[in-house]
Amino acid sequence: MKLPYSKESDIVIKEANRVARKLGQNFVGSEHFIVALASVADTTAYSILNENGLDIVKIIDALKYTLEPGGVVTGERDKYTMSARRILDDSQYEARRLNSQEVGTEHILLALIKETDCVAVKLMASENVNIQKVYTDILLACGSDANTAKRERQTGCFAPQAHAVNVARGT
To answer: Measured between alpha carbons, how far is 8 from 14 in angstroms, rounded to an integer?
Structure first.
């Protein structure tokens, strides 16, 4: 059974769709999610991204110069790229794993940074955002203690491959 999205997460998803339209794309990708997560104030993801130095203006500028209007994405399911769809699906897993009753912006961000090959993570890296620190900050915001967050990062729970194995096992 799917968990409901929080009010803030619904706003972020709608904002990602708006950003895609504004940039002239007919699809929503991870790059639109990172802009939305960093733009919708008063959310956990917004705070974490700001604290970690993500410059949303630079990200939007980079997107304006690298993305062409329109574009059909191979493997697209509805209007989301495969990467964006995995982020939304995996945010459900992350919310359950962290014992949440709903999918918050922090769960979307957590799923996004685990999608290591997506455009959003590459944009974050280009801005020298420390992805592992973002990961730790998310876990701390979700109530994990520092030792648990550090252990998870060191044991490979951060790696998307570990997540894929856990999903296959149903854990």
So the answer is: 10
Which pTM does this prediction carry?
0.85
Cα-based torsion angle of the residue sequence 162, 17, 128, 148 in order, rounded to the nearest 10 degrees: -40
Torsion of CA 133, 139, 143, 148, to 10 degrees: -90
- pLDDT per residue over 145-160, tens digit each? 777 777 776 665 555 4
Give how far Cα 60 sits from Cα of 49, 54, 148, Å: 15, 11, 34
Measured CA to CA, the distance from residue 163 to residue 133 in angstroms comes to: 18
- Two structure tokens written together for 118: 């997506």
Q: Which helix (H) or strand (E) holds 27?
A: none
How far, in Å, CA of 113 to CA of 109, rounded?
A: 6
Element (H, E) at 47: helix 44-51
Question: Which tokens belong to 163?
Answer: 């997540």
Q: What is the pLDDT of residue 155?
A: 65
